[in-house]
Amino acid sequence: MFQRLDHVGIAVADLEEAHGALARIGFIRRQEGVVGPDSQQGYPGLNARWAVYGFDATDRSIVLLQPLSAHGPVHDFLQRHGPGVQHIAYAIADV
Question: What is the pLDDT of residues 4-39, one digit of tens each?
């Protein structure tokens, strides 16, 4: 069933500030983008900016999530818990 840890999603208030902290310890930004407020594939819209980090070309172990506005699950998480681990994703063989 469980194959590996895919990534850790971390909610942050400021993506660029968090980028500096990750860069100082050797993480490299691999990819970035935006997920809007509209639902996709049965999931609520994140309404967040995201950036994927890893130590090398194949590693994508950290995903930073910054809310775009006061609406959405990343914003709600930050309001309730402050910055930190918002989700952990695992790769599995079969659902």
Answer: 888 999 999 999 999 999 999 999 999 999 988 888
Residue reference for tokens 């809007």: 36
pTM of the model: 0.86
Residue type (1 letter), 16: E
Q: Is the Cβ–Cβ distance between 56 and 31 less than 8 Å? A: no
CB-based burial label for 48 (10 Å; 0-12, 13-18, 19+): buried
Residue 87 tokens, joined: 């989700």
d(CA 88, CA 95): 16
Residues 6+ apart with CB under 8 A from 90: 2, 3, 4, 5, 6
Residue 51 and residue 60: Cα distance in Å, rounded?
10
- CA geometry: angle 1, 64, 18, nearest 5 deg: 140
